[in-house]
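We emphasize that the prediction below concerns an isolated chain of 119 residues; any contacts that depend on oligomerization or on bound cofactors are therefore not represented. The input was used exactly as deposited, without trimming of termini.
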Amino acid sequence: QVQLVESGGGLVQPGGSLRLSCAASGSIVSIYTMGWYRQAPGKQRELVAHITRGRTITYADFVKGRFSISRDNAKNTVYLQMNNLKPEDTAVYYCNAAINAITTVGPYWGQGTQVTVSS
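Result of the prediction step, given as a token string:
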């Protein structure tokens, strides 16, 4: 059994910052790409950023220069530092990881953490 547990969401004013964390646990052999997606009400889930095990990074255009993704392979954890947040960043943020578990290989999702940017 593999679990992804996110933390760090909340309410922040425009221009503020938040740091999301996502820790993977369970019967993990190795973790490949880890990333963050978000879904706003009435919209499709979209990629925010992802990072490979070798730390190759991809960002969505709408977060370039404001968000930063990183990972700690020893802790099976991925982070998303979000700066200069805007109201349009309001969404549920989901962690995603491609994990080689003992009996399966596949994508796993966290339960989501709410980020609300409002004055």
